[in-house]
Amino acid sequence: MAKHRGGTEDGETAEANRRWKVGDIAALTGLTIRTLRYYDQIGLFPPSGQTDSGHRLYDEGDLSRLHQILALKELGLPLTEIQSVLKRDAPDLSEIIAAQIDRLREKIRVQQKLLSELEQASAAVRAQAPLGVEAFAKLLGMMKQSHEKFFWERRTHAERALDRLGEWLAEEPDDERDES
Q1: Radius of gyration, alpha carbons of the chain
Q2: Which residue ranges does the record assign to the HTH merR-type domain (predicted)?
Q3: Closest CA to 46 of 37, 54, 55, 34
């Protein structure tokens, strides 16, 4: 008998048996079912079990692995490198989190620098002092660096929306079962 959504089997506790279907994981993470299936297909994120009817089931260990995958992806690693990292000895979760913290600190540093440059430009404009070409070039460079992530996130969001539309148009029976 398959376990699902905290159900119990043989008297075990609900917390120890917590399982999620692919649609549940998609809803929790914001990833598409299609992406999760692709990760399974390439061996990056296989489910730890399945229901009697063949639906993928994921447990808490799988969620931890997915966090590692997404953290490494956020650090800019391609999926093939992420697979290599995860195949080695179990990656140290504290190192992955530390790398995420470092990346976030760098983003904050870039944003603070941009804020400082914009404040200086604003003060110069208010004082009716001309902004030189170098000041504009520096400001534009900072804006570009700051906005690259924003545009990447918007593109990713649009791709996810197109994936969902494609899934809906395909109306695959397997999609409908997995989402419930």
Answers
A1: 22
A2: 19-88
A3: 37
Where is pLDDT greater, at 155 or 44? 44
pLDDT tens figures, 37-92: 999 999 999 999 999 998 999 999 999 899 989 988 877 778 888 888 888 766 67
The burial of 58, by beta-carbon neighbours within 10 Å (0-12 exposed, 13-18 middle, 19 or more buried), is given as buried
CA distance 103 to 69: 16
Q: Which tens digit of pLDDT belongs to each residue from 93-138? A: 777 777 778 878 888 888 898 888 888 888 888 888 887 777 777 7
Interhelix angle 60-74/22-29, nearest 10 degrees: 40
Taking the C-alpha atoms of residue 109 and residue 159, their distance in angstroms, rounded to an integer, is: 29
Residue 6 phi, psi (nearest 5) = 80, 10
